[in-house]
Amino acid sequence: MHPTTVLLIEDEPGLLEILALHLRVAGYQVETAQDGLEAWRCFEATPPDVVVLDLGLPTISGFRLLELIRDSVVSPPVIVITCLDFEEAEEVANHGVVDGFMTKPFEPKALIHQVEYVLARRRLASRAANEVP
C-alpha cells in the first residue's frame, strides 16, 4: 500500500513549509505548490489522496482550481484553508463541495486531524458503496 499523498497548496512560503513539515511528521507524503498553475500541474501528474487548498492563489485562483479538481475524473477530498470572511466562504460552497473548511490562523495539528477525518470518511463511504447488494 502506498503512503497517503497530500497536495498542499499555499502561496505563503512560511506557512507552506510549516504545514508540510507537520504533515510529513504525521506520516503523509506531501507535494507542495505555491500557485494555482503549479498546483494543477502537480494534480494532473500524480492525483493526490487529499488536497489542502488555499483560495487566495496567484495564476489560477483557488476557486477555479476547486472547479477543475471537482470536474476531474479523480476527485479527492478537498480541505479549504482560508482567511476569507463569511460571504466569501459562502462563495466557496457555490463553487463546489468541499470536504473540510478551516479559517486561518489554525494550529497545524488541527489540519492533521481534518486530513485524517476526511480520509476516514472517504474510506467509510467507499466501503459502504462496495457493500450495497
Description:
By secondary structure, the protein is an alpha/beta fold. It contains 5 helices and 5 strands, in the order βαβαβαβαβα. Strands 2-1-3-4-5 form a 5-stranded parallel β-sheet, with helices on both faces. The longest helix has 24 residues, at 108-131. The chain is globular and about 45 Å long.
What's the quick description here?
The chain is an alpha/beta fold and 133 residues long.
CATH superfamily: Response regulator
In whole angstroms, how far apart are the ends?
A: 27 Å
Multimer state:
single chain
Bin the helical content: 40-55%
Class inferred from helices and paired strands: alpha/beta
Tell me the total number of β-strands: 5
Strand order of the largest sheet: 2-1-3-4-5
CATH T-level fold name: Rossmann fold
Shape: globular
- CATH top level assignment: Alpha Beta
Low-confidence stretches: none
For the CA atoms, what is the radius of gyration?
14 Å
* Number of discrete domains: 1
CATH arch. level architecture: 3-Layer(aba) Sandwich
Q: Characterize the largest beta sheet: strand count, sense, and whether it forms a barrel.
A: 5 strands, parallel
Q: What order do the helices and strands follow?
A: EHEHEHEHEH
